[in-house]
Amino acid sequence: MKLHVIFLIIWALFGTSESSDNGVCGDRPLAEDFRGSRVVGGKDAEPGNWPWVISIQEYRDDEYFHVCGGVVLNNLWVLTAAHCFRDVGNEYYSWRLVFGTNQLSDMGAHAQIRTIKEKIEHENYDPDTESNDIALVRLDQTIVFDKFTQPACLPAKQAILSKLDDCYVAGWGVIKEQSTGTSDILHEAPVNIIPVEHCNRPTWYNGAVGDYNLCAGFEQGGDDSCQGYGGGPLMCKRSKAKFYTVVGITSWGSSCRQKQILGVFTSTQYYDEWINGEVFKKPQMSAVKKLFWQIAEFFYKIVKKVFQRS
Asked: Is the whole-model pTM more than 0.85?
């Protein structure tokens, strides 16, 4: 058999593109450039603005209801908050995750629905203080990346978050303080990152915010993350940069839209090692394909040298 034929067979078996499995983090094919268009108070998001934001939904009374948001990490894993699963036992196995949609009552043709195969809460999560409020969800089957569904970027360990000056929260949470129902359409709102030491002032959260948290909102009041935004992302970038990075997962807050009462988020940068350790602890198909491709490439080089010598 000729060398190029051998190579083509190896490519067909193991040469699946990694990007088709894992997408391009931070890619927003349908989103318009946000620079100069921040709207204080927030607004409904356009389809495709935040393709890594998903809805986690509880099943009760023969219907699904939005419980929390989540963030796509890759085609098999979602990042969210541990408090989303508080006091639910194993009922979350009947829940569903909705990808690629803006409006929950009319999800559209691009929506993808998956169920939960495995849920991993941080081993030190404390529901009383909401410390280590972070969780991972492994899907029952992989998702397909398209213009409406893409993985999020997480910040590098050495990234300086204080330099990120263009931040948003997004979710299907409560929009008004006195409202009890969550939004049907994905809502986005600009926020500012507030130093943790400011949030911990006696007249603010009085030391309740940990080093593993981020604070965001507006010191004078305004949109932040209310009920129903839990598990959803805090997304930031430099004003002239192209890609947003998910720097936080919505955790808690005493109120919303109130002066000096801001949203508190779990820092994804702080938990970088935990996230990677859990996600890559279990082998995934894409990783297996990548390994086979590396082995195939190694043997191809050896065979090529043998053919050249003969």
From this structure: no
